[in-house]
Amino acid sequence: MEAVVPVIRVALPVPLRQHFDYLLPENVDISQGCRVRVPFGKRELIGVVWQKDPDTPYELSQLKPVSAALESVPVLPEKLRQLLNFAADYYHHPLGEVLTAALPALLREGRLLSDYKSTLYTLSPAGLACTAADFTRSAKQLALWQRLLTGAITEEVLLAEYSRNTLKQLLAKSLITATATERPAYDYQGLAQPALQLTVDQAIAVTAVQQAQGQFRSFLLEGVTGSGKTEVYLQCIAPLLERGEQVLLLLPEIGLTPQTLQRFEQRFNVPVQAWHSNLSDGERLNCWLNAASGTTAIVIGTRSALFLPFKKLSLIIIDEEHDLSLKQQEGFRYHARDLAIKRAALENCPILLGTATPSLESLYNCQQGRFIHLQLQNRAAGQAMPSFELIDLKQQQLQYGLATTSITQIRQQLSRGKQVMLFLNRRGFAPALSCQECGWLTECKRCSAFTTYHKHTRQLLCHHCGASRPIPKQCGDCGSSRLAPVGQGTEQLEEHLHHLFADTPITRLDRDSTRRKGALGALLNDINQPGARIILGTQMLAKGHHFPFVTLVIIVDVDGALYSADFRAPEQLGQLLTQVAGRAGRGHDKGKVLLQTQHPEHALLQDIIQNGYASFARSALLERQQTALPPYQYLALFRTEALQSELCQQWLQQIVAWLTTHAALQLMGPLLCPLERKAGKYRWQLHLYSRHRAALHHALAELLPVLERWPLSRKVKWQLDIDALDL
Ligand code: ADP
Ligand code: ZN
Ligand code: ZN
């Protein structure tokens, strides 16, 4: 009888929607989740064994053998592989690219895990034979030697207390022996800082989450800014640490990690690790390994932290669950919240989504009974919520874009030694330069957009494609040299504020002022000093930072957001206004918010201000139901771009034609994108709506393999965005 040659299916980090099957050489046994090196065209690639004995569509003679197996213990545990399979299916994305998002670069390059064992240091026989008299020249060496006399220590502990130099000196004298060892699990000694006495609402929330231990349950924790959500997180975590379990906290932005990290470290005194895009490859792998070995207790990270291979994950928390940056906006466009829920289901653990301004999706899930709704009605320390006042710009004299009322109120607060915050969602000096003679405006040559005038760096910058140009001396149309800025950005407002409030320190927070590494931290530090100060900035101000001394918030210009074509615009405006306003009055004084607008009667503004976000969101959800928009329908979006607009249109038209047989789908488009041209390319989109998720996904699964064979698909650049957020 002929021997059966085993075949394995390998997930390879390539953007192709197909299976890669290989032969497993005799005598090689390898489990799913382990890495292998395989021939791929003229190269070799590192992949992960995904399936053994698949139903291969290929002849065995067509298959090549695996070149080498890298390990016998899986780098990707089964639950993580299930998560990646789910993600690839749900987002209709090639498994290879999903794998790339989940596996640290060094592992994709084939580094061996055995190279990354922890090092354990002990005294050698020579070291044991020493006496204190041998170290009279160096107090540092003496200290380390004395410490090692009491027992072995790991490299992490050693380097936290002693210098690498001291270690090297003792190693050079052969007094220390180094041995490779498994990374040890973390050690919890109890609270390092006492917990706060919970309010009733907080206690109900903590109890609910604790009772769900060991089960998959989703909770929405809706609590106004400053209501003590973070305290709830901390108290949900404490009992898990007693049992040596692990917690993942997902945050939308890197900027928020240092603050939060500190708060968690102070409370627990356990290893808390940050995970975000600014880590080096080495730091990433280290965090990944520490999650796998149970060495780290808590990981605080951005989106892709949800793919870490925790040893015993028993709670996932997502802070600011409404935040759009939880959705990856390019390549593999997953929503971290939605995949984290799937992860919790696989791990059989609870997941807690916290925010002051829940997404309509999450509120809908509460209404449907899929999420358990927890609410914190009041600020924890008893501070009042800020009050809103609309400033009708049509009735006011303006100075540098600020109404007289606004200026008077700023003066009042500053004279009391308080901080004032101004929110203007446009960075740079002015949105464009304009010719005073003929009205010509500076436009990007490659995008359908104006170029922003940046006075400080003396350039015209396109905020869409990043192209920059020097400031023109003359009008591009009539040649006049009378060019002037139109409109106002944060850079200009800062300049004017210096004139109006000459002696007051001013801190500007926007992408330009925080570009340098460490700059954001330094600015936040200034803001945390008491004393009169003006803080101005873009939507960065809405991101969960704690500004204890702000008593007045001024929203300089809300009108740009009032008339948008995107059906999500009202929700996003409601969240933004509420979050910015929430920065006010977190200290002892009640806060106030002034909204400058030309449209004080606008229904949306009235609703948010009169009734608050919670009520506004519920009526917005009702409106989505009446208009059959998400979350009442499922949405998928094809986007395409090309140098020729017609190609995009034709390609989308071809999809429309192919989909006509699918009655359960409702199509909208092809439509030009709101930004019609970007970096020289025209952009079009097609919306697919369906009441039935399965019908939508079924149609897409049938369409994609067909679509990939269309010649036109190679002439345009395209992407599919499931549950798209930006239209
Ligand atoms: P959130 O995360 O909802 O914005 P925080 O957890 O940061 O709120 O809490 C806001 C402030 O209230 C913090 O200064 C915190 O120390 C305080 N705080 C939270 N819970 C309590 C409590 N139960 N008793 C007293 N102060 C509290
Ligand atoms: Zn541009
Ligand atoms: Zn001109």
From TrEMBL:
UniProt-listed PROSITE patterns: HELICASE_ATP_BIND_1
Domain Helicase ATP-binding, which positions? 210-376
EC primary class: isomerase
Q: Which domain of life is it from?
A: Bacteria
Q: Which residues bind Zn(2+) 1?
A: C435, C438, C475, C478
In the record's cofactor note, how is the cofactor described as bound?
Binds 2 zinc ions per subunit.
Q: Which cofactor does it need?
A: Zn(2+)
Q: Which Pfam families match?
A: DEAD, PriA_3primeBD, PriA_C, Zn_ribbon_PriA
Q: Which HAMAP family match?
A: PriA
Function comment: Initiates the restart of stalled replication forks, which reloads the replicative helicase on sites other than the origin of replication. Recognizes and binds to abandoned replication forks and remodels them to uncover a helicase loading site. Promotes assembly of the primosome at these replication forks.
This protein is called Replication restart protein PriA
Read off the lineage from the record. Answer: Bacteria, Pseudomonadati, Pseudomonadota, Gammaproteobacteria, Alteromonadales
